[in-house]
## 1
Amino acid sequence: MADRRKPMRPVAPLPSADLPVVAIVGRPNVGKSTLFNRLVGRRQALVADTPGVTRDRKEGLALVRGRYVRLIDTAGLEEAAPETLFGRMRASSEGAVADASLVLFCIDARAGITPSDEHFAQWVRRQNRPILLIANKAEGRLGAASALEAYSLGLGEPLAVSAEHGEGLADLMAEIVDHLPPEPEPVDFMADAFGEDMFEGEGEEGEVVLPARPPGPMRIAIVGRPNAGKSTLMNALLGEERMITGPEPGLTRDSIAATLFDDGDQFEIVDTAGLRRKARIDEALEKMSVSASIEALKMAEVAVLVLDATLGVHEQDLQIARLIEREGRACVLALNKWDVVEDRNATRKAILDRLSISLAQMRGVPVVTFSALTGAGVQRLLPAVRDACTVWNARVPTGELNRWFESMLERHAPPLVDGRRLKLRYMTQVKSRPPTFVLFGTRAELLPDDYKRYLVNGMRETFDLPGVPIRLQLRGTKNPYAETGRKSR
């Protein structure tokens, strides 16, 4: 039975296909991420006064003078061998330029023109892409005068801006729009939003029954400890080397989102930085990375918890699973590096036994085994995510729920509290995402935790709700004589 609520006008989907791509490139620490945040209108990329904060390409949707663009923040361009970390970062930036409709080449106006600026300006010129030269950190008169040195790069007139202070952005946006390819014919996105499948049908008394899951992409957060293979999994799902990977732990610093279409469904997948124990997080930059990972988890519908199957379940894995449960997200357990596991039956049993003992709320969580490096088994992940999301959105009819509730009371009556029996009357589901139920009754708020677990486990088994948090709230009946001091008969 679906949830019956008043029909709500959906938000029009933003145009996502065939948007012009604007890539921000330049050497490290010239303010590319700060400019990216200014143009997308929020602090989406990590910013710190440290060179090399950005490692992976980060995309954002920016509205520039009435036109949507896909804005890409890239790692700093540096000369390095291809097999090194900086070489892989440069290759990622080069890939962004290859896909770009417009390149914003940034320099630091305060530092002046460096040999790296000159070298990469020549490289960008050879890519045959429209280029705008951005002299960042050009606040005040002195900065604007310093920006004039950028003429020597041969990339045209430099645009003096200060991304940190918001100066010169209006002129920059105008130039971006002028250099974009012609805008395609407009599409009535709102008409597409109200398709025939928008509503499930008529409810009682003319109410409209909304679908179990709202329209839009399914949001997935890939979480786990450092070096568990999250970025490699992201690349395997996307079918391209989008994320920088390697043997070094902690390569991913920011939460990187990408859109994937699979079997008619749209997914927004977010790769997050590895979550370590709190006591081991010292640097301010790593604290920001962890905060970005937690924020991505809060915005997700399904969390894919990636474990290194060769190492089993670590205490930090359990802490991350508890965080997923506390945030009320659906979960899929992803056992990576399965191709090098010797005794697979014993490994799977040990992991599931540890989870069932330490995390009762994760009982029945779907498990997918694969090798992100070779791609074997990765195709089973998205179907498991779909199933977990369906359970997360599930609703139980009130009549069916209360028939089950009566049978549970008959099988095991509530215990006495302070020598008096609790009178539990009925239950109802108040929301999904995750499934949340309210139990009403006299002094119901005094119900012991072990009886609550008895009810929750029964709901999980009877109504087939594996692997998702189930919330059970208690509402006691108000005593009309409590405030007067009179005793009820």
## 2
Amino acid sequence: MTVDGPDASRTVDEETLRYVGRLFGQRDGVRTTSLFPSNKLESLVVTFDTDYYPSGVDDVTLELRAYTNGEFHISYIERRSGERRRCRWDRHEQSHNSRDHYHPLPDASTESAVDRTYATDLTRVLEAAVLPWIDDRVGQLWDSV
């Protein structure tokens, strides 16, 4: 699958997203995985089971995009009490930060992005940065109850 628009030279890394989707499908706490849904054609969307979260958390998803040139975008989206919170791990060329960077909660704004250094392999990024962050986030939410 080739991307349309200004990033037309990027090709979706379907093999990696399929592999990661299978891994998430085997994880406790994951309700569903959806590869290339009609509203997110380049993405793997992972929906977490909100039973693992305190009441008031309505929906938690992770949206992953991966490209054969090594670029990626991983968005954590949390909806609670009508409010949407979002953060994002990125690897792509742009003018606001280094190629590897992170956009923190609550809104993943460009202004609050910080430089990061990630492993080359997307599965290692998930293992070393994203999943530990999600575990910490669940703990923070429970601690705030």
